[in-house]
Amino acid sequence: MRIKNMIRNSVFGLFFQVVLIVAGFFSQRVLFLQAGRELVGMNSVISNILAILSVSELGISTAVVFHLYQALARKNEFEIASLMNLYRRAYAIFALVITALGLIVLPFVPVFLKHNRFSLSYIRLIYGMWLLRTALSYLLSYKRSLLIADQKEYLAGIVTTTVSVVNYLLMILIVSLTSDYVLALGINTVIEAAGNILLSLYVDHAYPFLKRLKKEPLPQEVIRQIFTDVKNIFVMRLSVKLLTCTDSLIISTAIDVGTVGAYANYSLITQSVTNIVTALSNAVQPGIGALFVEKNQEKNHQALCLLTFVFYYIAVTCSIGLLTLMQPFIRDLWLNEQSLLEYPVVVCCAFNCLIQTIGMPLTIAMNVSGLFEKERNICMTGAALNLMLSFGLVYPFGIAGVLAATGCSYLIQLVLRLWCFFRYYVKQGLGKYLFQMVQYLLLAAIEMKIITELNIINEVYSTGGLWHFLAAGCCCVCLSVVGNFVLFCRSDRMMEIMKRLIKC
User: What's the pTM?
Assistant: First the structure.
């Protein structure tokens, strides 16, 4: 049952992400070409500022979901209802906190928008609307965590995807016809709130005991454990936000907001690929969490090795695709030649995607095993390293320097997670897993080098056009999948995957 739920959530998650990516690309194209790169850059800067402020959430969602795994496994409805009640009250407070913090930051937002063409009042209006949208999400979306913990994330995905697609279509229509971005953003906010209300009503219907049962207070030891986890997760989340959301702020401050708009296109492509992989990661995490509750170290080690092999497959394919097809896609199919950045930016994007994807199984393992304190320290180290390197590299190397700094941070975090997980949780098989990880990274680098040097994919795309691009994409996937199948066809990992797929 666990495997079937994981596969179902993975399939639905992948489908939803593909739909969102397609709609998002059309929306970004309209904004970039109709409203200009400065507006895209301003959106990127504002969204990253609010993402950093969102750490006021403290990470209670992750802590509550972790405890929900155990409550659902025990089918303890009283505990589930109490956890969700705590969650609801906490998120109401967080909505007020982020609103207050957002208003405090408001006067300083123009500092991060170097060389922009917008009036101060317009910047404040856009920022205020994004702030309202963020605060409303806290008030209305907390029940989604119960579906995630119960391995029913695909249900939340249906509502989220529908709302997002409608918002993208309305954004395209309104901006194309009227160029009124404020109107489009306002309508988007209303529709998103309506979608969250609909999801909340569904959870109330699917889990009637949430309202029926008296909200018994949680035992003190559970509350203490939650708040201990929250303290660790808060620092971890802050570190992650500083790692992922400061690139555009540094670029905007050191260069200009227009450059951020151009980089936002590359970021959207990379992030779209990462989101697809993350959807798969999120889909399997509840199943891995349920497995880890059993505390069978041998099974946990086997699951981690198998999952890492799967994500290696995905990482190589995605990285090769980014390395060879990102520039042609932006130049010929999506935007225009004026939207291109230098090739080192592409190399950095591909490298960062590779490290992130290969490292996802370890991140999952750290989350479901409750090693929040260790994860906190790792994220703090990564964030500090990223900030120092970014400020040091942005002026001599520009955008490529900032992205290279981020990649170095991802690699250091991967090493630290590997060491912590095997020292503090599994306590066996470190050498085997380390050899496996080094093998994957070396093979990935060799495969990317060979394919780019042979220029196979570019030859397929040489004449340009959509069909040739799709053919090049298929060629990229085939080269990666077939090549790695030949390398690993006799391995225990490949045989185990084939066996599990046949069973399902």
Answer: 0.76
Summary count for the chain: helices (H), strands (E) = 20, 0
**Does 350 reside within a domain?**
no
Domain that holds residue 146: 1-12+23-229
Exposed/middle/buried for residue 75 (C-beta within 10 Å: 0-12, 13-18, 19+):
exposed
Per DSSP, the three-state class of 114 is coil
Q: Give ∠ CA 248-54-405 in degrees, rounded to 5.
A: 35
Residue (of 138, 139, 157) closest to 147 by Cα position: 157
Total domain count for the chain? 1
Question: Does the residue 391 lie in any domain?
Answer: no
Determine the Cα–Cα distance for residues 334 and 331; give it in Å rounded to an integer: 7
Residue 423, in any domain of the structure: no
DSSP 8-state symbol, 217: P
CA 76/CA 68 separation, integer angstroms: 10
CA-based nearest residue to 126, from 180, 46, 35? 46
CA distance 316 to 318: 6
Give pLDDT tens digits for 191-235: 988 988 888 888 888 888 887 765 667 777 777 777 777 766 677
Could you read off the pLDDT of 340-388 as tens digits, one per residue?
888 899 999 999 999 999 999 998 888 788 787 788 788 888 888 999 9
Residue 27 inside a domain? The answer is yes
Cβ within 8 Å of residue 160, ≥6 positions away? 16, 195, 199
Q: Which two tokens stand for residue 113?
A: 């928008």
What digits encode the pLDDT tens for the residues 264-300?
A: 889 889 988 888 888 778 777 777 777 777 777 778 8
